[in-house]
Known about the structure:
Radius of gyration: 24 Å
Strand content: 5-15%
Amino acid sequence: MPETTAAPGPQPAQFDAEWVRAKYNHERDKRMRPEAVDQYVEVTADFSHYADDPYTERVERDPVRDHVQVAIIGAGLGSIVAAARLREAGVDDIRVLDTAGDFGGTWYWNRYPGVQCDIESYIYLPLLEELNYIPTERYAHGKEIREHLQAAARHYGLYDNALLQTTVTGMEWNDAAGHWAITTDRVDAFTATLVAVSPGSLTRPKLPGIPGINEFAGHTFHTSRWDYGYTGGDESGGLTKLADKRVGIIGTGATGLQCVPHLGEWAQQLYVFQRTPSTVGERGNRPTDPQWAAGLQPGWQRERMENFTRVTCGVEMVVDLVDDGWTRNALSLNDPAVARETARLGREMTLEEITEFLFRTDWEVTQRLRARIDAIVTDPATAESLKAWYRLNCKRTGFHDDYLATFNRPNVTLVDTDGRGVERFTENAVVVNGVEYEIDALIFATGFEVGTEFTRRLGFEIVGRDGLRLSDKWAKGMRTLHGLQTHGFPNCFFLGYTQSGVSPNYTHTAEERARHFAYLVSTFVQRGAGTIEATAEAEEEWLTAMNEAGEKAKAFYADCTPSYLSSEGDKDNPHGMLATNFGGKPVEFFDMLARWRADDTLDGVELR
């Protein structure tokens, strides 16, 4: 364990930058672990059942032996948007594959009680205008999101040639034939001219590598494979079978915020085991106003989506169309706030003054969130333990209207591990700081694999030209052009967190990548090409740009409490989010792709 900085004294009544930095550093250091992302257990071997599909009964079928023009591996939100844009571009021969029993990606797997989007549904649910659909709530619940994604898949005919309940086991380029050979666990062996690999980042569950994890004899499951047979109820709640059960849950991120209120309502006793508290702002969900919906004009969703991304990344906008916790926080912490302070001072600010100003305004935002806890949680000790001490963007911001109040229930106990995490498991208990908490069931709200090697998360190897394995080429980190192509792997595209700009609203990211992907594929088809591939030179230039843009982000996260955003404190992890995301503003990335397409010279991409 790294040496922990000394805890500062009592919090001063007024802002004290030195005290705040000392507090942040102390809280960060006691959570740092040398194992970083390796502190989590992969769901293989003894843990493989945690990845099983409990939602769809397996349907047997004959193996497939054929050829398709485009194969898309992954049936989540990003794949659906990409396939939709291909269809609109005139590409019809598309096959989608997924291990899951239906379309939806993370929204297929996540069916825990209270599951809900934390980005406004009018910009998060994709293809709303195309399907003439308006979400019923400002923050739609999981069932509505899942059903909308499946409706989109039907609208674009994606079920017709799909292979669901099918896991890809291998993918190899045949240079002589000019196509990819794909194999699956269903003994399929088909070929595809073009392949898009879109595994998503929130589908493969991870477990904490806590001593004794195999010894606990009670009932266990991961939130992405919720066991309603054990708990009773459904995604809306009603967990009646927990009335005589002592339940423990590990994980207080976005998932924990949403399911803890339901567990607290129904369990005889609930223990919430916390290593690091989340920031918890007000979500303010409400039904959709039909009068507002009736007044929407064509193009409204894209305008609203772009406005949200520009506001949240600090681009000055005349109006904030979404006006929620995300945008209000951003307006306090980004370039517009600096511009307002500069105008107030009547002079330009130095870099040091800007740094100190943003540090203070960040503290003011998080201080308001800590005050919200004091206003809601009645027990002072519990309230203190729920307070997050790190800069707002060190972890994904949380929003919920019922989470904090749940700790006022007499049957709910917050077990704060003071940053150390759970000590160990016994046959019937979770041990924290030497104290055993006996439970009947343990729920893992520990998220998904992020920061591990791409092909490990993918689950199979991709073999390109001359036998080059993607795991070897990317052993020291991804190498792409614009995050979509990599040299030596012709006719292969990547959709997801692969060296691209990422908005807090993932749907906007998926939309921009889908537009670029559809442009590349339609150009390939229109020009009658046999292969399309990034050049080695262009790939090297993009890698240099990625590294330069990422240094600022690395410097920020070096001071942060560990999270999946910083590869659990390993900022130099070549497979982590800091290395696989464009370090500049997402709109800079999106605008660059748009200019590249408008130029129409395919700079850095070779057609043969």
